[in-house]
């Protein structure tokens, strides 16, 4: 199984546990990889939507809210896989304030494996996990005049 951890690509084994840390850092994390894909492999996953910290980040381009949100979700996302997608709270499109590229804070902070599924955008991609294909689609990805 190939993964895309920027800036270094890595290879991981299916159904394995990995510990991640930098040097002698006290911040150590771990993650488990899913079982090898197959038609009879059971796999359980959950779906959750609209996890936002504050709507004010959109209205006033308070991008530091992205960082506090990242620290808030890290307690869970560091130990189990999260599959991200963008919605209306992540558009951050405000040409009158100089921000003319939609989803810029989102795509810079949340790297997803869209290239592995031959997608052209991080706003839609698919992931094969055990016996399931998980299709991730942002219904807001066509936002803006030039898209």
UniProtKB/TrEMBL annotation:
EC primary class: hydrolase
EC number(s) on file: 3.1.3.2
One protein family per Pfam: Metallophos
GO function term, MF aspect, one: acid phosphatase activity
Lineage top rank: taxon: Eukaryota
PANTHER family: ACID PHOSPHATASE RELATED, FE(3+)-ZN(2+) PURPLE ACID PHOSPHATASE 12
Protein name: acid phosphatase
């Amino acid at each position: 199984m190939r993964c895309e951890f920027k800036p270094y690509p890595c290879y991981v084994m299916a159904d394995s546990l990995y510990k991640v840390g930098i040097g002698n850092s006290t911040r150590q994390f771990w993650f488990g990889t899913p079982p090898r894909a197959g038609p009879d492999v059971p796999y359980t996953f959950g779906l959750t939507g609209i996890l936002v910290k504050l709507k004010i980040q959109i209205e006033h381009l308070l991008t530091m809210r992205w960082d506090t949100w990242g620290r808030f979700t890290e307690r869970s996302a560091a130990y189990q896989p999260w599959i991200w997608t963008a919605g209306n709270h992540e558009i951050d499109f405000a040409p009158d304030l100089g921000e003319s590229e939609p989803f810029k804070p989102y795509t810079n902070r949340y790297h997803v494996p869209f290239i592995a599924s031959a997608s052209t955008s991080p706003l839609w991609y698919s992931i094969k996990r055990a016996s399931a294909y998980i299709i991730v689609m942002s219904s807001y990805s066509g936002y803006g005049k030039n898209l």
